[in-house]
Amino acid sequence: MGATNEGALRQRMAEVMKAMDDKGLNRGTSGNVSARCGEAMLVSPSGVPASHLAAEHMVLIQPDGSMAPGSLKPSSEWRMHQGILDRRPDVGAVVHCHSRYATTLAVANKPIPAMHYMVAVGGGASVPVAPYATFGSMELAATVVDALDGRYAALMANHGQIVAAPNLDYGLAIAEEIEEQAAIYWGTLAIGGPTLLADEEMNTILQRFKSYGQRR
C-alpha cells in the first residue's frame, strides 16, 4: 500500500472514531477500530478520546506484532483485531464499540434473535454473544473470532459489540444497525418478547443480503 493510501486510511479511521461518538455508539475513550494496511494492520491508539484523534495517531502493527519506535501505545484490543484480520481474508476493517443497547444485551448474555430482517446485516440469522474474557487478552481474541464464525457482527459478553467488515464505512454502518436492532429487541422484552421470523425466511433474507447495498 502506498503512502498516499495509508494516509487516507489513517484519516478515515480517525473520522470513523469521531463518527461513533457523534452517533452515540461510544463515549469517552471506549471502542477502537482497525484496518488492513498491506500485510500490516493500522489500529487506533489506547486511551485517546475520539475528539483528539488525528491520522498520525493510528498505530501500524506488523504481522509479527512489532511497531515503529515512537508509535503511540495501540488499543489494548489490538490482538483481537489482528486475530480477526488473520482469520478472515474477506475482512478489511474491524469496528468495536460500547453502544448502549448492544452492551446491555451483552451484559445480560442475550443474543439478538431472528426478530427482524435487518438482523441479517450482521451476516447471520441472529447476532451471537461471544463468551466473556478479560479485555486485551488472547482468550478474548480467540472467543470473539470463534463467535463471529463468518458473520459480520457479534456481541461480546459483559463488554460491547464487534463488527468485522470489508471496509471501515461498511463496518460503521453495520455497527449502527446492530445497535438499532439491539434497541428494538430490548424494547420487545418489556412487552413479552418478539415474534421471530422462520429459519426459511431468514435464509432467504441472507441470500438477498449478499447482493444488497454497496460493498466497496
Tally of DSSP helical segments: 6
Helix % is 25-40%
- DSSP strand count: 7
Determine the mean pLDDT: 95
**Strand numbers in spatial order across the main sheet:** 3-2-1-4-7-6-5
Proportion of residues in extended strands: 5-15%
Instruction: Note the gap between the termini.
Output: 17 Å
Question: What name does the CATH topology carry?
Answer: L-fuculose-1-phosphate Aldolase
Estimated structural class = alpha+beta
User: Any idea what the shape is?
Assistant: globular
Residue stretches low in confidence (pLDDT < 50, at least 5 long) are none
The main β sheet shows up as:
7 strands, mixed
Sketch the topology as an H/E string, one letter per element: HEEEHEHEHEEHH
Q: CATH first level: which class?
A: Alpha Beta
CATH homologous superfamily classification: Class II aldolase/adducin N-terminal domain
Provide the gyration radius in Å.
17 Å
Overall tally of structural domains: 1
Proper CATH architecture: 3-Layer(aba) Sandwich
What does this protein structure show overall?
With about 220 residues, the chain is α+β, with helices and mostly antiparallel strands. Helix content is about 40%, strand content about 15%. The protein is built from six helices and seven strands. A seven-stranded mixed β-sheet has the order 3-2-1-4-7-6-5, with helices on both faces. Helix 4 links the parallel strand 5 and strand 6. Helix 1 packs parallel to helix 5, helix 2 packs parallel to helix 4 and helix 3 packs across helix 5. The longest helix has 22 residues. The chain is globular.
